[in-house]
Specification:
- The protein has nine helices and twelve strands.
- By secondary structure, the chain is α+β, with helices and mostly antiparallel strands.
- It folds into two domains: 71 residues, Multidrug-efflux Transporter Regulator, Chain: A, Domain 2, CATH 1.10.1660.10; 160 residues, Regulatory factor, effector binding domain (Multidrug-efflux Transporter 1 Regulator Bmrr, Chain A, Alpha-Beta Barrel), CATH 3.20.80.10.
- 14% of the residues are buried.
- The model has no long low-confidence stretch (mean pLDDT 88).
- This is MerR family DNA-binding transcriptional regulator.
Length: 271
């Protein structure tokens, strides 16, 4: 057994903490040197290194000092197991939260990277990957933005909203030149989103269109999309999905980019 003893300065340096922290722990009875030298200096022994690391770990896991002291007064395997189980649950929840945040950051980076490459408005057929969307059906127009956010917050929560929100509108309404009222909102679904609130779009061809400019210009842009669909003899799916490409990265709405994607059921060959 290693019986090397350490002064407060040596112990603080080894564990990269301030001596004042060790003095405070000593004062409140949380962690104290357990031996004395012949000349009266208080010393830490080798076994206290791991004890100190466990205390620091529990503090990092937001366990209160009074809770740590309560355990120290009656240490036993069952109590420690209960503490570790509780903290493991909290860590797992924090990891899930961090993964959600990571997904948001990756999504934002992809959008902004595409925005940097966008020179002007465009309409094309593009193969998109499979997508799982969380949808919230209800009818509204662009003047109901406050209501939209309130409903999303109530039904989805902040984590889902941060994945980005878009609108969808039925294709048959677009064909009838009725694009004033949307049919619902959607977001890229988080892993734990309930299946009954989600729709899955397959990998395949989509009409993919991006418009740079104010929302008020979207009706005329939809007219251009319809002309493109007709010229290419495309049969479209049920809904058209809109999303903002560069939200929180613009100085004026003139820079705003709206992207629209519509599933293509099939393409007819030109005669």
């Amino acid at each position: 057994m290693n019986d090397k003893k350490m002064t407060i300065s040596q112990f603080a340096r080894l564990h990269d903490v301030n001596k004042r922290t060790l003095h405070y722990y000593d004062e409140i009875g949380l962690f104290s040197p357990n031996t004395k030298s012949e000349n009266g200096y208080r010393l830490y022994d080798f076994r206290q290194n791991i004890d100190f690391e466990y205390i620091q770990m529990l503090k990092e896991l937001r366990m209160r000092i009074d809770e740590i002291r309560a355990y120290q007064r009656h240490p036993n395997a069952d109590a420690l197991l209960s503490i570790l189980t509780q903290k493991q649950t909290e860590v797992e929840a924090a990891i899930r939260k961090l993964k959600e945040t990571q997904n948001v950051l990756e999504s934002l980076k992809r959008r902004l990277s595409f925005y940097d490459q966008l020179v002007h408005s465009t309409i094309e057929v593009r193969t998109l990957p499979a997508m799982r969307l969380r949808v919230l059906p209800f009818h509204y127009d662009q003047n109901d933005i406050e209501q939209v956010y309130a409903l999303a917050k109530e039904n989805w929560g902040s984590a889902q909203i941060r994945m980005g929100m878009g609108e969808y509108i039925r294709v048959n309404k677009i064909m009838a030149h009725d694009w004033q009222t949307y049919d619902g909102i959607y977001s890229i679904a988080l892993d734990d989103a309930p299946d009954h609130e989600c729709v899955s779009l397959p990998e395949g061809p989509y009409v993919f269109a991006c418009h740079k400019g104010d929302w008020n210009e979207l009706p005329s842009f939809y007219e251009r999309i319809l002309s493109f669909v007709k010229a290419n003899r495309l049969t479209l799916g049920t809904n058209a999905y809109e999303f903002g490409l560069n939200e929180f990265a613009i100085a004026s709405m003139d820079e705003y980019v709206t992207c629209i994607f519509i599933p293509i059921l099939h393409e007819k060959n030109h005669d």
